[in-house]
Amino acid sequence: MKKYFLRKTIATIYTSLIKMKISKNIGILCCCFIMTSSCNLNGNKENTPVKKRSGDSNMSNKTSPPQLDTATINMDKVKQEIDWHDDVRLKFLSECLNPFLEAKKVTTNCSDCDKISFSYILTINEKGAVIKVKRESELIQCKQLTSNDIAELHAVIESYFKKQILPRSFAKGNYRGQLGFILRC
Question: CB-based contacts of 103: which residues, under 8 Å, 6+ apart?
């Protein structure tokens, strides 16, 4: 839970920095600084071993040295989440989902509280090309889309991703990501 909260907080801060027209590199550096300063590490750099006295043998069993509260931060995962949000998801909306909805003359609005959201697992090769697209789940509540339209949309999404080269942070692996939107009225 702590890692999830930290990741979401960093992604939110990074997104805010980008919206303020701060370059990606400075945003990443700021996030790294925030992550390292948010870890609850003891600032004491002294590494002195504890000397045992003959009478301390029972003492070591009763008390243990204080454990540091450390958070392992996987910068690759953070970079993937940032790239997914800033590059992949926005490009998907503008190049795939929105044109599909426009072609079907679907207008989403708050009065119908439309939801068109998917979870996909993408398998990516070392060059960043998507080689496999697997739909994990979906939440579609849109009165204007028929079941045939939804099946067609899935085919369009799969075709779209198989033509994409994702950012370097996704190379060689699987990525589970959310796509689409949920209108919150």
Answer: none
